[in-house]
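Why this split exists: single-chain examples teach little about how molecules sit against one another. For that reason, every record in the complexes split bundles all components of an assembly together and asks for one structure covering all of them. Below is a record exactly as it appears in the raw files.
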Amino acid sequence: MAAARRHKRVAASQPGFLRLKPDLDHSASRIGHKKRVNKNKKKNWNKYSDIQDVEEFLEDVRLQERATGGLLSDKSDDGLFFVDVGEQKVRPDPGAVEKKGKGLKPLRIDLILQPDSQVPPPKELSSNLLIHVCILAYQQPNARKLRLMAQKAEKLAAMGVLPRRERLLQRRRMPGSKKPVANNDPARAFYDLWRPDRPDTADPYYLEQTKRRLVKKGVTSFLTPPTPTPCWQRPEKLNVKPSLLPAVEVAAPGASYNPDFTSHQALLLEAHETEVAKLKAEEKLARQLAVRKEDLATEESVFREQVEGLIEEEEEKLEAEEDDEGTAVGPTAQTEKKTEKQRKREKADRVKELQKKAERKAIDSRQQLFQLRTISAELRRREQQTSVRRTRRKDQQEREKVQPRRLGKLRFQAPDLDVQLSDELSGSLRTLKPEGSILKDRFKSLQKRNLIEPRERAKFKRKFKVKYVEKREFREIQ
Amino acid sequence: YESGSATNYISRNKARKKLSLSLADFRRLCILKGIYPHEPKHKKKVNKGSTAQRTFYLLKDIRFLMHEPIVGKFREYKIFVRKLRKAYGKAEWGTAEKLRGNKPGYKLDHIIKERYPTFIDALRDVDDALSMCFLFSTFPRTGKCHVQTIELCRRLSVEWMNYIITLRSLRKVFLSIKGIYYQAEVLGQTITWLVPYQFAHDHPTDVDYRVMATFTELYTTLLGFINFRLYQTLNLVYPPKLDGKGEGESRAESEEDYAMDSECYMEKLSALSASLVRVVSTAEAEEAELDHFPAEGEDGEKLAERLKARQDQDRQEKLFEGLKFFLNREVPRESLAFVLRCFGAQVSWDKSLCIGSTYDVTDETITHHVVDRPSLEKQYINRYYVQPQWVYDCVNARMLLPVEDYFVGVTLPPHLSPFVEEKEGDYVPPEKLKLLALQKGERPEQEEEEEEEDNDDSEEEEDEDQSHDEDELKGMEEKQALGKASSVKVTPGEAKPVNRQRAEQEAKAEEKRLAVMMMKKRDKYLYDKIMFGKKRSVREANKMSAKRKALDEASKANKKKKLKK
């Protein structure tokens, strides 16, 4: 039994080799069938030599490397065994100061999840390639790549750059570290936001290209065309306010708590006018929606509807008339062919017409020489017209800049003017009753300045009907 | 659609989907980043043929939004909320607690820096921030918004007020029925803000509180940074510290009753009665007098003008300097304390009213006592009892007005808006005219008026006198005419004194008339229109004053009747 012998030899060559799994004796099952083969053929060597034991051995080596991170035989006894002395209580030492870096230690769960194996993961082989790559035990897949990567990592580590995984682990907040301060924390600290930073000494082109600094606009020479703003940079247009209105519009002098008579009257008049305009609009709508008198059913129309279709004679007459009209009006198709003579005459007519037109044109253009004054007057008039239109359009644009735009479904609705009637005015600050809400005023101001679109409050919609049930106890009492 | 305006715009819903945010988050992001909807010129083209009303954004803006790190934070927050809800649903209180501890937050600092690249940019936009902060700081803590936000707003607004007091840059105050408008000048920028009256809240239902809270979030951050910078420019310590001198005195026993130790500091700061600590001592800073250099291209006149304006301003800043005020408990304490301290007055109030009172009612050195009740029983003889409007009117008039019109129980003169700038030919209320006269230093005129008002009977007599005079004049004229007719005499000619000024004026008027005559038809039309407009405004002003006169007379007559009764 050559195989068994070889197995023993290999095992013997490993000093103090330990198997992870208990050894199974396969040799007993294989004793029965023994075949004689010629060993002078290489083919037979491969086919009939028994390498099971070697395979098993190597498998075991790999298993040990995978699972325990090295050969068991290489490990020291301390690593493999420990003396069981029962449960030991760890008593915290009151005198000992906690280590500084203890808080920064990664979690145990993360350590456990770290890959323990020394065997690198196998190279993935695509299944459609029918190549069986034979990798020997001492070979490493992707060895070159891995080596390069390791070198690079070492280099980076020397420079203080950690791999992403490590960074993520370290970035994890420790229980002792500070929580981020909420934005509306009343005790939050502020600093000088607009402090001029130290000037960059590096090449500006380098900084721009590496996106360390935004590309400066406006410093384009004629040699370099203006670059469009990159999309990660704030568009210049955003710094223009969408409306020219001031942020805080001061109330009219009539809205003083102790107003001058005339200005108060002026304010009241204004409020009155807006109110009247509103009423007018409402009335107009009501008028337009009202039922017209002509549309109401009269006795006659009701009767006519009832006898509709019962009187036949009139209908027939009407139909007959309609038929007559239809035949008279309808277009007739020309089926007759034109004669040669007709064609020639038509052609001659066409030519004549064209000639006439050309002549007329020539005469007109000649005649225009004598109309120079009128023409120039006309030109001037037109120019004036365009200039007037231009100014008007400009004015309109200026006015629109102050006006609220239509930004959504709803139009901006100006809030009601806050006024106090003459009898509501109180002469002193103590008895003053403030009018209107400033919150609403601010909100409307934002809408008016086109910062937000006007919206309606979402209506509450019940999905299911409410079902009322009388409780039994209640019924009994009744 | 590969070109044209349809490619420049994006509808709100599409933008929202592009950023994968909910509508509320999208709205919040837009507000924070200062990206506003845009109305396209040709809606139908942008809307791809549809005429439905939609909200559009510029596509470039939305692309810019995609690079915002806060978007990620919003998503994180969404996940946080989901986890929390789940934990609560499963009644896992421990998990919920742990989650709450790790609530994700975000900062707006970089957005502020991006939106306002320079400090002046930020200062220009501070009106909104101030109004919002003052508004939110007066909110009741009933859960309409976070209590923390309210507290932060209060802190920032108090800091702002303290800064304005130290800078002494308040210019105008207007008490309207809505709230109080203040105007100050900070680093050359005119800043207007609106402060609500205390306890004036009804919560309107048609206001989106979420939107307002988002704006406030942005504005509190902005105002905080602005405050820091402003305090730095004045060499003040930030966060503000009260001056140490008064520390010992102010530790009165009533303090413990008033506020907890943790709140005490803030309350004292908001009392506005003490000055703040400076990094550099004040004496050094004030001694250095500014040198005056004429700006380029500026002649002597302009320089003098500028100097005069500067002096006026200095005088105005020291309006109440050396005066000692005491505020009765019914007057709006905070507003009055703010305004008075802005002009260098000393203020105090009752100890039980608020923390930080520095002297008592019984103090003999008090010069003005601000009262807002019809009558006061116990009065000290060496101080004026005035109504609060006096303070505000003095500030607007930039001078100390006579106190008589503002005594306790007297009907107050109207409170005019300082924000109105009358143009030539506009109607000017008589109170304003009086004020302007006072400002020029014409005091007697007003006294005359008062006299007139006091004794109406004498006025009528005067009227009679006038008519009598007129009769006499007429008689003289008749006599003269008769005399001329009777005697024809040649008298030596007298050199008529030529009024050169008048002649000049006449010549000018003539020139103008001729120029008008020579005008082109088109220009003439425009000119006529302008003149008509001017005349109309004058006519209207006249009408108004006539109305006012009629009203005054009517009220006088009423008074008389009452007196007779």
